[in-house]
Amino acid sequence: MIQQRGNLDWLLKELADGVPGIHQIVVLSADGLRIARHGGDPDAADRVAAACAGLQSLAGAVAAEMPDSDGRMRMVIIEIDGGYFYMMEAGPNAYLAVLSDVVAEAGLMSNRMRDLVVRIGDHLTSPPRRTGQTV
């Protein structure tokens, strides 16, 4: 069960308003379920969230191969035709993903995303899912 304290919409809108070129922002659980979104349609946000689950797993596996790394993915940036995809850890078992056009400046985007992640931490937890077992 995803537990969300407060409404993240205003925080995501603040990021979108502060960085020109953002098309969609998605907060997701580590297993690829959408927690919150801004921009785009809900179905697209669900597809982005599902894809991010595999991407964060892959990035973590690569990070584990880096000497002196703790094996955790900090940020993934992918350049695509017409824009960029950014993803970073947003809290325990949660991630922040952003799709932007080429107007968005990468340094500004990563700084604003990091600022938002600090703020999201106060509003979001996504504990690991259980298989019907009681604790």
TrEMBL record:
Residues 9-100 form the Roadblock/LAMTOR2 domain. It comes from Streptomyces cynarae. It holds the Pfam family Robl_LC7. This is Roadblock/LC7 domain-containing protein. InterPro entries: Mycobact_SerProt_Inhib_Rv3364c (IPR053141), Roadblock/LAMTOR2_dom (IPR004942).
